[in-house]
Specification:
With 261 residues, the protein is mostly helical. The protein is 74% helix and 0% strand. It has 13 helices and no strands.
Length: 261
């Protein structure tokens, strides 16, 4: 009963957004059965050059953020799992503590830093700051996943003449594919859905991400709910497709990453 109630709590708003996006006009209607269906809202968004550019910007930022995050978190997670060095536990705790810092706390100092180095209204001005919010969780995830892989596999490779880097890339890393899938999902979903940094650090129309571009449909006196809800539906598609593609690896990574070998 609790699961059914929770499912309805999650699913009904999604259905309502989908139904609203198929209705004409700017007036919001709280109904799950539309009297008239139109695709004009989607047609406007998918033919508007600025909206198409914002979708491309979001894809570029999300993919680059995902790639950089997976690269760094896999190496850092491997180091925390395999090497025993002074301050290891403290450094791991400090990394996780960064995940607890609210996003709004970082806005003013990050804006000042990006302004000084000329990274406002740039892709790297979003990709690099996103890492401070994505990496802590992904490093922790990858560290736990590397703990499940026997170190004897790497030792055998080292005995056969393989370097430490070679053992990492050729032996250990291929075995962490489910963990990499989970880390990629987390990174892509966060970068795609992130709004606060995108609306603060990007002001140029051609550089806006999709989530920031949707914000401009919210007027001071009224909102164009047709365009806004259609944009929300479009915004869900990349995340849903990515999850469906990596669903098996995602579930396997969540279960294996939480067990130590």
């Amino acid at each position: 009963i609790i699961l059914i109630a929770y499912s309805l709590f999650v699913i009904v708003p999604i259905i309502w957004v989908l139904v609203t996006s198929l209705q004409p006009g700017e007036t919001i209607r709280f109904t799950l059965l539309p009297k008239k269906i139109t695709f004009s809202n989607y047609g406007y968004l998918l033919t508007n050059l600025l909206m198409l550019r914002s979708i491309g910007n979001s894809l570029l930022v999300s993919i680059c953020s995902m790639g950089l995050s997976v690269l760094v978190s896999s190496m850092a997670g491997y180091a925390f799992s395999r090497y025993r060095f002074k301050g290891r536990n403290f450094l791991m705790s400090l990394t996780l503590a960064l995940f607890m810092i609210p996003i709004v706390v970082n806005i003013i100092p990050l804006y000042s830093i990006l302004q000084r180095i000329g990274w406002l209204n740039t892709y790297q001005g979003l990709i690099v700051p996103y890492q401070a919010l994505i990496l802590p969780l992904n490093i922790f995830l990858m560290k736990n996943f590397f703990d499940t892989i026997p170190a004897q596999l790497e030792e055998s490779a080292l005995v056969d003449g393989c370097s430490r880097l070679g053992a990492f890339t050729k032996v250990t890393l291929p075995l962490t594919w489910p963990g990499l899938a989970v880390a990629s999902m987390f990174a892509f979903r966060f970068a795609w859905n992130e709004f606060i940094f995108a609306i603060t650090f990007i002001s140029g129309k051609n550089m806006r991400t999709f989530q920031a571009a949707l914000y401009w449909f919210l007027g001071l006196e009224r909102a164009n709910w047709g365009y806004l809800t259609a944009g929300v539906v479009i915004g869900m598609i990349p995340v849903v497709i990515t999850f469906l593609i990596f669903q098996r690896q995602f579930i396997e990574g969540l279960t294996m990453g939480g067990v130590k070998g």
